[in-house]
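Appendix C reproduces, verbatim, an entry submitted by the partner laboratory led by Prof. M.T., so that reviewers can inspect both the input and the predicted structure.
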Amino acid sequence: MDNNVLNLQSIRDDFPILQREIEGRPLIYLDNAATSQTPRQVVEAIEQMYYKYKANVHRGVHTLSQEATDHVELTRERVRQFINTSSTQEVIFTRGTTEGINLVASSFGDMLEGGDEVILTVMEHHSNIVPWQLIGRRKRIRINVVPITDEGALDLDAYDDMFTDNTRFVALAHVSNVLGTVNPVKQMIQIAHRHGVPVLIDGAQAAPHLPVDVQDLDCDFYTFSSHKMYGPVGVGVLYGKKHWLDMMAPYQGGGEMIGNVTFERTTFAELPFKFEAGTPDFVGISALGAAIDYVTSLQLPRIAAHEDALLQAATQGLLDIDGTRIFGTVPGKQAVLSFLVRDISSYDMGVLLDKMGVAVRTGHHCAQPLMARYGVNGMVRASMAVYNTIDEVNRFVDAVRRVASMF
């Protein structure tokens, strides 16, 4: 067997949910940009933590507590290797990408002042818009927005021109959750750094599909979610350069993040615990380690090649259907395919596809400013993962064609 070819049957066997039927038809799950399915290996890691190692971490001297702590810190080291941070002190566990962004917006935002400016892009998920609006209202901060081309590429000239003496922060998606566009984040980080401005990268759609090296990117913050990369829900990662994390105030207060507490004064724990208040989801964190092991064993370049083949097949199939409009056509995009067929609403298309066993996402995809940019209320989105097959893609296209014929 070619070492560059994935054993899809073996992979699909790891995901029992793929054996389900919907409306009497085999499930075709194409909503992976929202959340991916979970392999047996990750579920078994959760089971083992509950059955053998459940005890509060970082606090107990007894064996179970020490073992649970070891599992959490082993996962922290796995994350460090996975995204190539220089130290585990720079790896903070969160509840997901959204909390990672909120943490930075709140804690870094405390250092901003009225009149300061933050740069976002029009393709951002609401999770990378609303937190900055909240801090902006409190601090009277201005938000500037990078536009995109019709094809879905960011306008880098406009971006470069946005920097002023008041620009203090940039936050942008590595990969668009709607368009699949892989943004030139390394170049954009270099531009920002020339102006002395730090950058946060929303990596929710990138980490499951692309090799991420935060030191090579030289980003100041990078955040992603477990549940989009075959791991458990409610767990995520925020990477931050130690320089900034040392300067930032804690996001939340409580147990674990303290050094010493009196009613007169509190000192804070060392990194990364300064930003991990309360009992963490140590079960989920341990299972995230298993998910990273799973992705690593399949090799991200092989995953990317497989998903690209699915994307190309799906794209060509949809374009053969009269009246199909695909949003996001930049070369090298990820396996996210947002489209509309004539004037069929995304909701109607999604409901009818579900009747045929095909699970897709419909609506505004938590990206309403992007919908406004394209002049639509919503889109249908099919997003692919490592366990999807060409046969599923063909059946998906056939299902879309059948729905189109109904209208």
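The mean pLDDT is 95. Additional entries are available on request from the coordinating office.
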